[in-house]
Amino acid sequence: MPVTETFHIPRHTRHVPTARQRIRKALADWGITDELADDITLSANELVTNAVTHCRVSHAQVRVTLALQGAHLLLEVHDPDRDRVPRAREHGPDAEDGRGLALVGQLAHSWGHTRHPHTKSVWARFTLPVPEEPRVPTGA
After folding, report:
1. Whole-model pTM?
2. C-beta of residue 117 within 8 angstroms of C-beta of residue 79
3. Domain annotation for the chain: domains and CATH numbers
C-alpha cells in the first residue's frame, strides 16, 4: 500500500472538486473513513481553495500531497507564490469568508506553513486512530 499520494491541479477554483475527489479516494484506499475522512477532506478543501484563490503566479499548478507518517496523516498543499503566507484573520459574525484557516485549526492536530526555495506549502497534520488489537479469549 502506498504511503503517499501526490497530484497536481491547475490553479483554478473549478478544479477544487477534483482535488476533493482524489483525496476522498486516497483516504478510502487507506481505510480512513467516517468523521476523520470528513475532517481531512474539509481541511483539504479549505487549503486548496486558498491556494487557487490567493496565488498570484500565472498558469501555476497546485500540488497536493497526503502522506501517512506513523500515527499521523500529513496533508500538504504547495503553490509557487512563496511570499504570500497564510494568516488567520479576524472576522465579524456576518463575514462570508475568512474562516478557512480557523476551521483547519479546529479540525487538525496542528497546521502551519513552510517556505521552500521556489514554493510554499500549507500543511495540516491529523492524528490517526490507534488500531484495536485483537482480543484473545482468556482461559476456559
Report:
1. 0.85
2. no
3. 4-85+102-127 (3.30.565.10)
